[in-house]
Predict the structure.
Amino acid sequence: MFTDDQFKSILIKTLERKSSSNYHEGVNKIVSKIKISDVTLDETEDFTYYKGYIRGWNTLCTYLKIKVPFDDLDFFESHKDLLTQTASSIYDKQGDNVLVDTILVPLPENYEVIDFSPLKISDVVSQAIEDAESFMSNGEYPRAFDRVHTAFHGYLIEILKNFGITAPRDESLSKLYNRIQTLIEKEIQPADLADMVKTTIRSSNGMINSLNEARNRHSLAHPNTNIIGKREAKLIIGIASTVTDYISGYLDK
């Protein structure tokens, strides 16, 4: 008899062999997703007729049960026959049981909500952050991405205002961040690290510019056709959060 972990391991190795022989398109993707899914054998006392054995109707059903992220459900459904055939050939007959089908169980995902609480320094910015948090909690990072841009833009303007600097509302993120850099560079301690840290701060302007360009060309804020992917949106949101934490530590007083 197999343990669940043993069966999962053998299933993965068998699929990898199929992939190496070009047996089935997309097997590599199946393997990568199964590795992070919960795989169990559900051995029941339900009778089934299995023509491969003389015992016929005395054969009992085993099901391959895979818990998969909800977003991957359609993908697994499209490869269900391959999974069942492969798993059935591995399982063969264990006691009175044979593996007859694959059951896919949707697994709700706990999406990361990246913390932007330091940005909440005005009503407009706070509303944008609340919208972004709502989108992130449902895994909608491409939609959260635009709201983070709005919040970050408003945050920089408010920080500059606190230092007596008036910036136009339509000024780009890059220009706003350039103004912020000047303020931060005056605060760097110790002095002998100033040049190194200044270089780091200035290089981050490229990331800020990427955030601006991605929002304008690949977000739902404009009628774009090529929308940023979930992972890429989450990456840039994370970068914006890191930069915000750094700015906040020096200037949000």
The two ends are 65 Å apart (CA to CA). The CA atoms of residues 49 and 57 lie 4 Å apart. The longest helix spans residues 194-218.
